[in-house]
Amino acid sequence: MKVSLKLDKFEFKGVPVERPLIMAGPCSAETEEQVMETAREIKNHGVQIFRAGIWKPRTRPSPFEGVGKEGLPWLKRVKEELGMYTATEVANVKHVYDALKAGIDIIWIGARTTANPFAVQEIADALKGVDVPVMVKNPVSPDLELWIGAFERLNSAGITKLAAIHRGFSQYNKTLYRNNPQWEIPIELKRLIPDLPIITDPSHICGSRDLLYEISQKAMDLDFYGLIIETHCNPDKAWSDAQQQLTPDNLNKLIHKLVLRSAAVQNNTILSTLEEYRHEIDKYDDKIMDIFEHRMAISRKIGEYKKKNNITILQTSRWDEIIRTKIEQAAKKGLGEEFIIKIFRAIHEESINHQTKVMNE
Ligand code: PEP
Ligand code: MN
Prior knowledge:
Layout: E1 11-12, E2 15-16, E3 21-25, H1 32-44, E4 49-51, H2 72-82, E5 85-90, H3 93-101, E6 106-109, H4 111-114, H5 117-126, E7 134-137, H6 144-156, E8 162-166, H7 184-192, E9 198-200, H8 202-206, H9 212-221, E10 226-230, H10 248-257, H11 268-308, H12 316-333, H13 337-360
Helix pairs in contact: 1-2, 5-6, 11-13, 12-13
Bound molecules: phosphoenolpyruvate and manganese (II) ion (MN).
Residues 27, 53, 57, 110-111, 137, 167, 204 line the site of phosphoenolpyruvate.
């Protein structure tokens, strides 16, 4: 079911933001010099929106939890001297008032705050009657409902310039990424609320510099609206998130390397060729559905047989063998291991459901 929000175009005082919207700046504002130097260099590369964390939600207690209020006048300088828009994170009502008083142009709600509906509601209440764009990062857990809930709370408080920031999801087992992108979640958000701009935060997804381009390009190819990229005049010396921040020059290189493709197909020849391909894909997808139907019919038969012979549904060694052989086959067929594991887990789960039904009949 679609989610209905009353949204206005994402713009500043009547100036629309062109896609891709690029926000850049340090993870944290550290000193006035660091803020001004970073902002100046970023601005020279044509970036309009400056991000900097003033209050930092550190997962573990840390000696550095942001400079606090004292950094707000620095952002004001960025705005006044460089003509940039400024953005910072707020986590409570006091942050909201201080940020608004300092003339911050965009506020964002961080991943740890989005996870707390009480905090989001308080922030929404504090924003009543204020015309400020608000961006909401995904909650740390892969919970789309919680993310949508935050937009609903803000929208009910009258905030209509909303955007989502996709920053990936926490995971216990460390993988390639600091936060798992789980693209299917922002994609589903886009399906449910097509007018809500989605901005990807490759910095917090990757946790390191080398993967930033790949994630940024992918976000563009999913037709997401923009990117928020941590950028620092001296990244290695950053007081937080040093490994993932770019120099302004490298940010510029990344932006110029991005290939922007269009989601709208204007040309009829292209459209009809695409349709041919899609038709072929549909045929295969229908075949997959038929195969699933037959596959589950056999699952029910085996369920009946297990029932008659008093055998459990789950046979761990059999399941282990399936996963192992499928991973081998996948490699030969050029299919991703993670994909195949997901598919076979889902098939196995569905098969267990069919067998359970038979057992209980
Ligand atoms: C940040 O953007 O600096 C930040 C703290 O991000 P997140 O809320 O995504 O962890
Ligand atoms: Mn950070």
